[in-house]
Amino acid sequence: MRTTEMLIPTLREVPAEAEVVSHKLLLRAGFIRKAASGVYTYLPLAQRVLRKIKNIVREEMDKQGGQELLMPIIQPAEMWLESGRWHVYGPELFRLKDRHNRDFCLGPTHEEVITLLMRGEVRSYKQMPQLLYQIQNKFRDERRPRFGLMRGREFIMKDLYSFDRDEAALDVSYKKMHEAYTNVFNRCGLQFRPVEADSGAIGGSSTHEFMVLAESGEAAILYCTKCDYAANVEKATSQPAAGLDPTTQQLALKEVSTPGQKSADQVAAFLSMATGQIIKTMIYQTDKEIVAALVRGDRDVNEIKLQNVLGALTLELAGDAAIQQATGAVAGYVGPVGLKNIRMVADPEVMAMANAVAGANKAEAHFANVNPNRDFKPELVEDIRLVRAGEPCPKCQAELQEAKGIEVGQIFKLGTKYSETLGATFLDENGKEKPIVMGCYGIGVSRTMAAAIEQNNDENGIIWPAAIAPFHAVVIPVSAKDENQVKLAGKLYQELNQTGVETVLDDRTERPGVKFKDADLIGYPLRIVVGGKAIEEGVVEVHQRRTGKTELIPVAQVVEQINKLLPTL
């Protein structure tokens, strides 16, 4: 297309509302415009990028046997009431009523719709496996929409659901999607890592997130450089703690005065000991009860792990009043010895401690020489600590590294969570009724576009991977008044498009510098400049956006050379 015929409203100034790089550049380069908080209009350039990402997704889903359908955005409350999620999903669920005062919601996800569809259509094991997907807008009423397309209230998503007869068949479907997702993000030209993750509100037994690595990422991941281990910090584990040395002499429990010393670091310094010898006791309030979580003093509680261990819907630190009422002590002096009527969860590292220090459940005092099992016995011993970079990998013991990532996809093994609740069953070969075994697999299409920019940019603008760039190349005549330049630029523009190179002709009467800046801002992988040398010497300037490399190519060879160069970008 010709630039004079296109809607590309580029901006010179950075909009005040934009915080992260992708948001700034999408606005400045004329890809999106804000309609409301967390809601955007995708302009033509963005639509071209999104279409390319969708096409890659479709091809990889279809290659694995996926079948595309389209489910309703507006979902009746009855479905969500039947699954039990209408009242527990939370305020992120957009709720509305029709003219008959019936409750509906705007779909943030489609487990209910697809499960009820299959409940009515699947009767026999012979009808499975099924892999059904859609690409559609989703809606979540984020309390604080931010970062442009990274955390919006309306976004484009691909969601696929698998339906299998048993866990072994689900494993096959899960591996297919893992492979498909790997192919999708490789084809999009992104650097990413699949990581173990927590399943969150969706539920399920196993899940992986696909993280695009970028400094602006909100999520922290831990990974091993020596093996394939990688996990979100919410899920990460480390080398198991060594067991208690049976030869260690357990000293007599004694109370020590610790006036004004509340934190683990303060107590350790006051008693001239390592922070790792302190038992940190954190009091939490769940939707069911008050609980005490025990970790080593140099560790932190991983609240996601703790919530999953407890099977709680909600989890938050108890307030000072609640702590005193439950334990009889003020915050900072709570400990496991003598703690009554409170469920206690200890990390395995705590159980390997000997002669430790813990709160004495009275002001200004701690117990010394605290020994697990002798002085207290927790109801649960589970991994509830937050793993940090530098700790040993749970697979190979190499040192774990930390990076930031942007979640662009996630795959879940749902099992029978929804099929049992919603009655989606089938008859096996023996005529026995069984619940369908399900999986759920999502890709944030619009978020992938933003994540690609977060990973591919410089001070001049976007650097698109060629596979998802809105156009592959832009042809720029240096002088709009030179008829020979304009004619040659038009000829190259037509020839490139005819050979499949998606090309823009910048036919504006702007100065060359303005055109070059816009080309860099928008991020065309190739810029072809037709100047005086094209007429005098028969060569044009070809500039690669990613590498900054510029070379002179004979006019007669431009189309051939560009077609050879493009697959490498």
From TrEMBL:
Keyword flag Ion transport: no
Main location: cytoplasm
Family annotation (InterPro entries): aa-tRNA-synt_IIb, aa-tRNA-synth_II, aa-tRNA-synth_II/BPL/LPL, Anticodon-bd, Anticodon-bd_dom_sf, Pro-tRNA-ligase_IIa, Pro-tRNA-synth_IIa_bac-type, Pro-tRNA-Synthase_IIa_type1
EC number in record: 6.1.1.15
Superkingdom as given in the UniProt entry: Bacteria
Domain statement: Consists of three domains: the N-terminal catalytic domain, the editing domain and the C-terminal anticodon-binding domain.
Function: Catalyzes the attachment of proline to tRNA(Pro) in a two-step reaction: proline is first activated by ATP to form Pro-AMP and then transferred to the acceptor end of tRNA(Pro). As ProRS can inadvertently accommodate and process non-cognate amino acids such as alanine and cysteine, to avoid such errors it has two additional distinct editing activities against alanine. One activity is designated as 'pretransfer' editing and involves the tRNA(Pro)-independent hydrolysis of activated Ala-AMP.
The name this protein goes by in its record: Proline--tRNA ligase
Taxonomic source organism: Desulforamulus aeronauticus DSM 10349
Gene name tied to this protein: proS
